[in-house]
Amino acid sequence: xxxxxxxxxxxxxxxxxxxxxxxxxxxxxxxxxxxxxxxxxxxxxxxxxxxxxxxxxxxxxxxxxxxxxxxxxxxxxxxxxxxxxxxxxxxxxxxxxxxxxxxxxxxxxxxxxxxxxxxxxxxxxxxxxxxxxxxxxxxxxxxxxxxxxxxxxxxxxxxxxxxxxxxxxxxxx
Length: 173
What we know:
By secondary structure, the protein is α/β, with parallel strands linked by helices. It folds into 2 domains: 9-22 and 66-172, Rossmann fold (3-Layer(aba) Sandwich), CATH 3.40.50; 24-58. 49% of the residues lie in helices and 13% in strands. The protein is built from 6 helices and 4 strands, in the order E-H-H-H-E-H-E-H-E-H. The chain has a 4-stranded parallel β-sheet, sandwiched between helices. Helix 5 links the parallel strand 3 and strand 4. Helix 1 (25-41) packs across helix 2. It is globular.
């Protein structure tokens, strides 16, 4: 994001997120154990879980260590040619979070934010539950900002996108 130049409108592209390939496995295993324990007990997030989550999210990444993030960054770059200012955010394991991305946009004066996810179909907890809950909380925290979650997608349009990817050049058939 270009923090020095304010944008009144922006898009936040939200991907799932992945663990960088070089994060030590014991850190990931401990984070997942703490998350599972919290979810099963209904407890609040512990300091240890919060610290591990931040450590893993902010782990240094390269296209070689996080191909998923590199892919989301590439989609965002292409999306910018169509819609203007785009920043990325992730649901888990990678920074920034949706809260961080929106907070940074609001801080530089953005007043209209459209949130779009790379998760295309209904049925996922991130796209159907977590992102809408986060958007509601962000709207409460920033009542002067227009936040719009552009989801669910038209499944016919998704099917057309996938069909276009299936088209083979005449000489390849």
